[in-house]
User: What shape does this take?
Amino acid sequence: MNLRGDPQSQILAGSSQSFVWARAAETRTMKAVVYVSSKATPVLANFAVKDDVPKPQPADTQLLVKVEAAAINPVDLLIGQLGIFMASPLPFAAGCDFCGTVEAVGAGDAAQQFAVGDRVFGYTGLGKAGFGTFAEYAVVEASVALKCNAATAMSSAQLASVGVGMLTAALGLFHALGLPMQCKAPGTSVLIWGASGSVGSWATQLARAAGYSVIAVCSARNFDYVKQLGAQHVVDYGAPDAVAQIRALGSSSQPIRYAFSTISSASCDLCVECLAGTADAKLSSCQGAPTKTVEPAVPCESVFLGSVPNPGPNMSFVEQVRDTLCEWFDEGKLIPGRVRELHGLDSVMEGLQMVSAGMSGEKVVVVF
Ligand SMILES: NC(=O)c1ccc[n+]([C@@H]2O[C@H](COP(=O)([O-])OP(=O)(O)OC[C@H]3O[C@@H](n4cnc5c(N)ncnc54)[C@H](OP(=O)(O)O)[C@@H]3O)[C@@H](O)[C@H]2O)c1
Assistant: This one.
């Protein structure tokens, strides 16, 4: 671990031994919102605010980040609700989306690309002690941490809202559907079901940035929002003829071949109806799988960001596309979505309650 610039190492250099030990003990714990149980009801009973959570230490491949803001995702609730993805013994800090400042860097090559004081953002991982971002400090694998020049003009809350949504959307479009990150056939359209949600709004922006034409499905109150993000066509999922409207946007020479569903098995089925009859059509989904079968079959590829940062195809994909995504921010092709800001670590509980009740076109972010 590189401690250059670390305030604690400066204290080590210039202080008496007894003061050093007192200071070290003081910084060994931190405040965090932790999982204390699973499957309790109401779902918030699985969380508690604690002051004595062990402060994580970065491994060679990791960065230690002082967290400035953390977004709340549906998966944070699901982990507690279903007791899934709990890889460490309870209690451990919850949360996986963050923006913060690098406090220490590991000795490995990927970590050494960063310096103490760098502003970073992104997604850390699910269910492991030390990775939880509803905490004063968290570790992140350096090879998936995001850093870009455009970040200087963005707030901590905006940056914290990026990680899970954008990386899941990138997996859905450029990995699961296999769409090139630069569109090779002008006019190719992508149907995005749930375009006003966090994943869907990033999918809309990413597809547009890559040169695709976006057909966005959301409620009418969010039409203007998704158009601002780059959608060419908007369709209200509440309309009884939504599928017919979408199919009419394709043509015999250029039918809709690609769809990304971000809501449920029911939305996967509706996507299948939209793609039915098109040769080589493909669907990806980050929530649920289709139950409907058509001829010719529409294959559906599931997306699971939660396998990152464990080694595997999803981790390799995120490592490969990270620099391009950061360049798209710097080129102004990507902008942060709408956020609802709360303040103070204690208000994570309020934020979890808001996400549990359902959000529309906004990401809940807690600024510490
Ligand atoms: N597999 C993975 O790796 C992965 C990663 C991230 C998220 N997810 C999952 O993906 C889902 C979406 O996550 P998120 O963070 O994007 O959620 P979110 O931002 O909370 O989604 C809220 C949005 O869902 C939209 N919506 C609700 N019902 C809809 C319907 N029937 N059709 C179209 N849109 C509908 C709402 O749109 P309107 O307000 O316009 O009605 C709202 O804007 C969640 O279930 C989450 O757990 C999976």
Notes: The first helix runs from residue 7 to 14. Residues 1-25 have pLDDT under 50 and may be disordered.
